[in-house]
From TrEMBL:
Residues 80-317 form the Radical SAM core domain. SMART domains: Elp3. SUPFAM superfamilies: Radical SAM enzymes. It holds the Pfam family Radical_SAM. Residues 1-25 are annotated as: Disordered. The keyword Nucleotide-binding does not apply. The keyword NADP does not apply. This is PA0069 family radical SAM protein. InterPro entries: Elp3/MiaA/NifB-like_rSAM, MJ0683-like, rSAM, rSAM_sf. Residues 1-16 have a biased composition (Pro residues). It comes from Rubrivivax benzoatilyticus. Keywords: Iron, Iron-sulfur, Metal-binding.
Length: 373
């Protein structure tokens, strides 16, 4: 589908009990996506339905999982802003419900809302390991490190039941194929039996996203992710097991989690992190009105100030998609954040990128050699 020529963000829902923040969800707004042809609004037909809905208290919202048999599982990347060439995502959508997630607009391609649907309607690529095995055994395949979970978290809660990410790591372990992985879930500890030997051979590294040390703020920003304390414990567990582990303090949101940058880096270093990076807040497409709505719900006293600073770093807009600036921002404030990050990393002895992973030991999946010759 092609996006409309001019996407106008819809107005946020009215402040009613039905649209109040809901425990365990980042948003209750099923925002219309940019490909929708029809606009909808509440209409009072005389039966009192609108008034009744306005007085309702939101109930718990269950998670739905749709199984998908993917045709391809590896995605190529040629963006100069991103430090990997190949990625693999076992899921679409993410139950963690992080309100700031730049992947939310991708749900529009499924015809679903980047708001509520993104965190309640998930797609599980149940044949991910099978498709990966086929890709690694293809004629002429040249190994490059695979970044796992770059769009949605590979260890979100549903992984505990489905085990798709574990099956993927089993293939990578079997073939000695290098990989990196980023998560904010403690569930990554389950797979240490696969990760540790790969890390010891220079073929694996893990990054943990830690946006804040404040558990109350974390519950509002990323309602179903592990607590900050639990993530620090995961960093320590990985480090003690010999896994090179980094921390991502992303996204940096002005006046929300940005004041904690140095404290988060300090705590991560004490837990055993060896590298760190940070990306300033990005608000593509439908994410902008969703995030603005969240600000009005949770920090109304700072909402205008936060967005003014975001726009200052984004050339006067909510989002700047240009290569070279989309991850870093521009202007005085963006430069100040970079200096703070670099100075803190230098003081703490944190690297700003991970070591190159070894691709030389790769061996095609069992049976693939016969197809090569």
């Amino acid at each position: 589908m092609s996006p409309p020529r001019s996407f106008r963000p819809p107005a946020p829902p009215p402040a009613t009990p039905a649209n109040a923040p809901l425990k365990g969800r980042g948003t209750t707004w099923a925002i219309a996506h940019r490909f929708e042809r029809d606009a909808r609004e509440a209409f009072d037909d005389g039966w009192g339905a609108v008034d009744a809905a306005a007085g309702e208290t939101p109930q718990s919202l269950p998670t739905q999982v749709v199984e998908e048999h993917a045709g391809r599982i590896l995605a190529e990347n040629d963006s100069p802003d991103i430090g990997f060439e190949v990625s693999l995502n076992p899921y679409r959508g993410c139950e963690h419900g992080c309100i700031y997630c730049y992947a939310r607009p991708s749900h529009a391609y499924l015809g679903w809302s980047p708001g509520l649907d993104f965190e309640t309607r998930l797609v599980a690529k149940v044949n991910a390991a099978e498709r990966l095995r086929a890709a690694l055994g293809a004629r002429g395949y040249q190994p490059r490190p695979i970044a796992v979970g770059t769009v949605t978290d590979a260890y979100q809660p549903v992984e505990r039941r489905l085990g798709i990410t574990r099956a993927v790591l089993e293939v990578l372990h079997e073939t000695r194929h290098p990989f990196s992985l980023i998560t904010k879930s403690a569930l990554v500890e389950r797979d240490l039996d696969l990760i540790v030997p790969m890390a010891a051979a220079g073929r694996a590294c893990i990054d943990i996203t830690l946006t804040t040390l404040d558990p109350a703020l974390a519950r509002r920003l990323e309602p179903r992710a592990a607590s900050p304390e639990r993530r620090l414990r995961t960093i320590r567990t990985l480090a003690e097991a010999g896994v090179p582990v980094g921390v991502s303090v992303s996204p940096l949101i002005p006046f929300v989690n940005e004041p904690e940058l140095e404290r988060v880096l300090q705590a991560s270093r004490e837990a055993g992190a060896v590298r760190a990076f940070a990306i300033v807040l990005r608000l593509p497409s439908e994410l902008s009105p969703l995030f603005r709505h969240w600000l009005e719900q949770h920090v109304p006293d700072r909402a205008a100030r936060v967005m003014a600073r975001v726009q200052e770093m984004r050339g006067g807009r909510d989002n700047d998609p240009r290569f070279g600036s989309r991850m870093r921002g521009e202007g005085v404030w963006a430069e100040l954040l970079r200096q703070r990050l670099h100075k803190a990393c230098d003081r703490l002895g944190l690297q700003r990128r991970h070591e190159a992973l070894d691709v030389a030991a790769f061996r095609p999946p069992e049976g693939a050699q016969r197809r090569l010759f």
